[in-house]
Amino acid sequence: MLTTTLVFTFLSLLYTVSGQQVGSYQTETHPKLSWQTCTRSGCTTNSAGEVALDANWRWTHITGNYTNCYTGNTWNTTICTDGKTCASKCAVEGANYQSTYGISASGNALTLKFVTKGENTNIGSRVYLMASESRYQMFNLLNKEFTFDVDVSQLPCGLNGALYFVQMDADGGLGKSSGNKAGAKYGTGYCDSQCPRDIKYIDGEANVAGWQPSSNDTNAGTGNYGTCCSEMDIWEANSIATAYTPHPCKTTNDGGQQRCTGQQCNVPDRYGGLCDPDGCDFNSFRMGEKNFYGPGMTIDTKKKMTVVTQFITNNNSTSGTLTEIRRVYVQDGKVVQNSKTNFPGLLSPYDSITDKFCDDQKKVFQDATSFQKNGGLVQMGKGLSKGHVLVLSIWDDHTANMLWLDSNYPTNGDASKPGIARGTCSTSSGNPKDVEANSPNAQVIFSNIKFGDIGTTYTSR
Fold first, then answer.
1. How far does Cα 423 stand from its chain's mean position?
2. Are 122 and 115 in contact (CB under 8 A)?
3. What Pfam families does its record include (predicted)?
């Protein structure tokens, strides 16, 4: 989730928190979601696929009773006197996916609704694709392509229907953290390149120390610790704008999950931590092509589309060095190549992410070179080779109102300057209070996920 000045701060249930013990009040039953693996011989359906809700959305209470360990945006400090004690006393519950969180799956399609009203009101969600009931599905994207269908027609300004990969542990940290008894089955172990500090449990301990409630989000806050890992944003999008962005990290295990504190978490220096928070993004509008993506445009966001992302290596093997990340679209049965950059100063018209593209883009946009300092595509590829977890989410942005994706950003910048304009949304759009009130029925539908050899997951014609 996931570029300039962005920090994950998700709304959840009024009484939702995460925890590491396992409760017994709600049976955890993952929605089934089939997907396909493809080779030159054809595609094979994995009908055993399922998704698990992230632990940050779940209700946590004292083990054996209904007393909350966390309410609103504050910890129950009577129970949670420190991180280890809190983890030992608090249980994370199973989820009622559809009625509580607006998450439903049918065949190969997953629908994520924005606002779900029940006994409490839930905003947004984040889920992970599972290999089994207790392990995340791991993907090595090198020399492969990843394809999916998506419907963003019901996503207005200020919302993000995101599909991306992060270098989480397959078991959700169960094996390396003795305080974690819940694991991947209950959606533990999240990390990303923003090194988010709003994650309530990290490495099996509650993020209690230094916790500060958010000033503009009644359900979120930040603690002393964050959780970092490399991140590949395949798809951050609404109906107005989209971007795909690699974010390399220099954490343990070539970008693997690592708890951070202080400057490691890019605080106070945004570019002095373990990860690249900005990434090297390709947003067609930001790259100068104003009529490529949007309602009624070349890629018409009023209709479902197929999104293909290819990870090309120097020797065309899964052990090679990542040299290019290429995007292709399919809509109405026609293959549409990605748009090309359209800015004076770029040495050539690029239509994919390469290290040369990133060098030229950062120079023309006068952006920080954090991507390069963190190893660029080479380091990103090292992380991808270790295996990444697929994340699907819908969210609004309490930090920057999603303007970094779909409007002029920074808002005081000159929109005629290369890199400032990212979409046609107003700079006054995206306020979460407005989005939640005016677009409660917003949703994103992801479907027809395919993973395989390059050129095998879609039809060219």
1. 20
2. yes
3. Glyco_hydro_7
Residues 6+ apart with CB under 8 A from 124: 10, 11, 12, 112, 114, 393, 394, 395, 396
Contact (Cβ atoms closer than 8 angstroms) between residue 278 and residue 4: yes
Q: Which tokens in the block code for residue 413?
A: 């910048």
Question: What pTM was estimated for this model as a whole?
Answer: 0.94
Burial class, 77, CB count within 10 angstroms (exposed 0-12 / middle 13-18 / buried 19+): exposed
- Give residues with Cβ within 8 angstroms of 412, minimum separation 6: none
Q: What would you measure as the largest C-alpha separation in the chain, in angstroms?
A: 64
- Cα–Cα distance for residue pair 200/170, rounded to 1 Å: 19
Q: Helix 355-365 and helix 376-385: axis angle, to 10°?
A: 130
Task: Output DSSP code: residue 397.
Answer: -
* pLDDT of 16: 39
**Which residues carry out catalysis?**
231, 236
Q: CB neighbours (10 Å) of residue 238?
A: 28
Cβ-based burial of 132 (10 A; exposed 0-12, middle 13-18, buried ≥19)? middle
Name the residue among 354, 351, 405 with its Cα closest to residue 378: 354
Sequence-distant (≥ 6) Cβ neighbours of residue 19 within 8 angstroms: 55, 58, 60, 61, 69, 86, 87, 90, 91, 92, 182, 200, 201, 206
Over residues 167-201, the pLDDT tens digits come to: 999 999 999 988 899 999 999 999 999 999 999 99
Of 216, 220, 218, nearest in space to 207 by CA: 220
Q: Are 203 and 176 contacting, i.e. CB atoms less than 8 angstroms apart? A: yes
DSSP single-letter state for residue 107: T
Q: What percentage of the chain reaches a pLDDT higher than 90?
A: 88
DSSP per residue, 245-293: EEE-B-SHHHH--EEEEGGGGT-SSTTSSSB-SS---B-TTTTT-TTSE
Q: Give the position of tokens 């660029």.
A: 376
pLDDT band for position 1 (50/70/90)?
Answer: very low
pLDDT band, residue 347 (cuts 50/70/90): low
Whether residue 6 is predicted with pLDDT greater than 70 in this model: the reply is: no
* DSSP element (H, E) containing 119: none
pLDDT at residue 183 in the model: 95
In the chain, where the domains are located: 32-54+98-453
CATH number belonging to domain 32-54+98-453 = 2.70.100.10
Question: How is residue 133 written in tokens?
Answer: 């009931």
CA distances for 215 relative to 398, 420, 428, angstroms: 10, 27, 19
pLDDT digits (tens, 9 = 90+) for 251-280: 998 999 999 999 999 999 999 999 999 999
- Residue 4's pLDDT is 34
